[in-house]
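Shape matters. Shown next:

___
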Amino acid sequence: MNLDQLRDYCLAKPAATESLPFGPDTLVFKVANKMYAVSGLNEENLRVNLKCNPDYAVELRERYEAIKPGWHMNKQHWNTVCIESGDLRDDFIRELIDHSYDLIVRSLSRKVKAEYNL
């Protein structure tokens, strides 16, 4: 998976948006104004920070060398996924993105879900 594929997949999610709130080098994907994925634009090796269930986050870090505690994020709830390590299949990376997105959507109130048609 490359940056364009990552971007396309993240933006294909219902009500997903992208922005650069931390400067021109950090791409942030949100749903209902809540972050679910963060990636650097000018990194040598593509990585993405993804929200994760805390127990699952620990399991993933133990199982995959390409998954680390979230860089500059709450280490309990975020993982950094090293996409270009070659250790992870694209479909698995998409599953991790889905998990992150779904965690955010599940946390939204009924009112916000209705506002965004989620």
Summary: The chain is about 35% helix and 25% strand.
